[in-house]
Amino acid sequence: MHCRKNDRPRRFMTEDLRRHPRFAVDVQANVRTNDGRKLPARTRDLSRSGICLITTHALAQREELLIDLILLIGPSSSSEPLPLRARVVWCTPISQAFQVGAMFENLSRKEQSFLEMFLRYLDGSILPAGTEMDTLEAAENAETREVNPEIKDDPFRR
User: Fold this and answer.
1) 83 DSSP β-pair partners
2) How far apart are CA 10 and CA 141, in angstroms?
């Protein structure tokens, strides 16, 4: 077994010293290890720089992973998997599973952009196109937008 209770670094300060805020979120994830294992997992929390997963298998500290996150958008629809490369920082046994902390590494700009969009969706600052709230907000914005009759940038207006 690769996980030990003392693998997780202790924090002596009560203040959270992380670089990025974490989102407590339960999202389906599929984990692929370097030795070819494919493990189902769930997220516990997620940030721009790392992830906490719950899985049924222990993972070794410094083990490289490819994590596919799958976001449920509606009752019967989900996002394409978001693949993110990460390295295990700590692993702790909990009940009959393992809690794994991993730090993202070597993410491309595209992967970082998709992760940022994913996090913005989770915090509610963006909504999928066509959702009820998205449509309502667009309608409200159209109603409150003022049209200045003096604007002459339209070639058909004189």
Assistant:
1) 68
2) 49
